[in-house]
């Protein structure tokens, strides 16, 4: 019974980690696009902020789960 719980935790922790990596890349890409933009584009700024919020939400979740301390 406890092995199953451990296996599920490991699986979901791996998913969380891969999501964190993906959102970090998305956030960095959005920052790069915004940096090279000549004019003020609201849509690009909103996309960057959404990507940033997603990444930090996942970061907080990983911290609460103590993802790196196994």
TrEMBL record:
Database matches in Pfam families: DUF2508
Highest rank taxon of the organism: Bacteria
Protein name: DUF2508 domain-containing protein
